[in-house]
Design a protein that fits this description.
Keywords: Disulfide bond, Glycoprotein, Heme, Iron, Metal-binding, Repeat, Secreted, Signal, Transport
Function: Binds heme and transports it to the liver for breakdown and iron recovery, after which the free hemopexin returns to the circulation.
InterPro entries: Heme_transport/Cell_adhesion (IPR051298), Hemopexin (IPR016358), Hemopexin-like_dom (IPR000585), Hemopexin-like_dom_sf (IPR036375), Hemopexin-like_repeat (IPR018487)
Pfam family, one: Hemopexin
CATH topology of the largest domain: Hemopexin
Shape: elongated
Largest sheet: 5 strands, antiparallel
Distance between the termini: 32 Å
Radius of gyration: 23 Å
Helix content: under 10%
Number of domains: 2
Structural class: mainly beta
Number of strands: 34
CATH superfamily of the largest domain: Hemopexin-like domain
Strand content: 35-45%
CATH architecture of the largest domain: 4 Propeller
Protein name: Hemopexin
CATH class of the largest domain: Mainly Beta
């Protein structure tokens, strides 16, 4: 089977390692490129004991409070459910759907997990026709809603905190709580979720933003390890499986209050700070991002420094914020009340576009290049330009 010919998938689900599997009949595909293999090559028991020629739906459970289910893959066929972990069928399965997920009907069309923060509580969304069943994994309460505005989903996928309904060889992005469609859809899945000859035009945003020689506006990693680079109206997100690289999205998709062209972004104390002009927006980091009530506020009131600024970064859990403005770097103690500049140091570079700090030190971004320093102190003290690295080639993984 060739998924590039245009396939309506039976199910799509990641495993506990984040590898995404696509299922159709008795075949499956691993990841976003590669040939089909037989379903029983990895899930042997489905064929050996149950002669399962296809699945109705599948999802990966997100339920950290219950390790016996968390990160397990659940397959559904007719009125039965199969639970797998590390590609092994759990003892006692298959079981009736009504036993494991009371209130959920049989002969499902699709299913997808929804962590707390993206949904009200850790949940699973089950699809059958135009009816959507929200299943609370802790209380096992079920709420049914008609989502007649969505196409009938034959599979569903949560990917990089976004939700997709697959129908035919197309997909539609939707909000997991309201079901509202976000953006212009449907779109052809072959342009986005698989590598196919004569396709891939839909990923032009990613290719352009990832491999452009234009400078970065900001770059950071949040407390959950999610990495972001900002440029113009787009941000690049590093996939949870780093070998799958960076992917571009409009900034307004994730931070709707921000139109684009940010000046600096940094993370501290489970919060993401986005600086734009004379204002700072602070978002609570979780499964998604929620703007804290009362924001945006002026940069002067929040951090004790006038805008605009060029870059900002914090190293690990250390409470010192480093703000770059022109040819100077300022230190601000984030635990102080009120906050304000406590130290200023001149810099070698006349203009810095972005900066970040990680376990390997400080990266300073200037135009299409970045420079590495072992610490903020060595960066501020240096008067010699170190060896330059290409952003697009060495950081974002472009091969040209």
């Amino acid at each position: 089977m060739d998924r590039c010919e245009g396939i309506e998938f039976d199910a799509i689900a990641p495993d506990e390692h984040g590898v995404t599997f696509f299922f159709k009949g008795d075949h499956m595909w691993t990841g976003f490129h590669g040939d089909a293999t037989l379903l029983n090559s990895l899930y042997k028991e489905l064929d050996e004991h149950h002669h399962l020629g296809h699945v109705d739906a599948a999802f990966r459970m997100h339920h950290p409070a219950d390790p016996s289910d968390h990160d397990h893959i659940f397959f559904f066929l007719d009125d039965k459910v199969f639970s797998y972990y590390q590609h092994k069928l759990e003892a006692g399965y298959p079981k009736p759907i009504s036993e494991v997920f009371p209130g959920i009907p049989s002969h499902l069309d699709a299913a997808v997990e929804c962590p707390k923060g993206e949904c009200v509580a850790d949940s699973v969304l089950f699809f059958k026709g135009s009816e959507i069943f929200h299943f609370d994994t802790r209380t096992k309460n079920v709420k049914m809603r008609p989502w007649t505005h969505l196409p009938n989903c034959t599979s569903a996928l949560r990917w990089l905190e976004h939700y997709y309904c697959f129908h035919g060889h197309n997909f539609t992005r939707f909000h997991p709580v309201t079901g509202s469609v976000v953006g212009s859809y449907p779109k052809d899945a072959r342009n986005y979720f698989m590598r196919c000859p004569k396709f891939g035009h839909g990923s032009d945003d990613t290719e352009r933003e990832r491999c452009s020689h234009v400078h970065l506006d900001a770059i950071t990693s949040d407390d959950l390890g999610r990495s972001y680079a900002f440029r113009g109206n787009f941000y690049l997100r590093l996939s949870d499986r780093q070998e799958e690289g960076w992917h571009a999205f409009p900034i307004s998709n994730t931070w709707k209050e921000i139109g684009g062209d940010v000046d600096a972004v940094f993370s501290y104390d489970s919060k993401l700070y986005i600086i734009k002009g004379e204002q700072v927006y602070i978002y609570k980091s979780g499964a998604g991002y929620t703007l804290i009530e009362g924001y945006p506020k002026s940069l002067k009131d929040e951090l004790g420094i006038e805008g605009p600024v060029d870059a900002a970064f914090v190293c690990g859990d250390y409470e010192i914020l480093h703000v770059i403005k022109g040819q100077s770097m300022y230190e601000i103690d984030l635990n102080a009340t009120p906050r304000g500049v406590r130290k200023e140091a001149p810099l070698f570079f006349p203009k810095v576009d972005a900066a970040s700090c990680g376990p390997d030190g400080v990266k300073v971004f200037v135009g299409p290049k970045y420079f590495h320093y072992e610490s903020p102190m060595l960066f501020s003290a240096s008067r010699i330009q170190p060896h330059p690295h290409k952003i697009s080639l060495e950081l974002l993984g472009c091969d040209h």
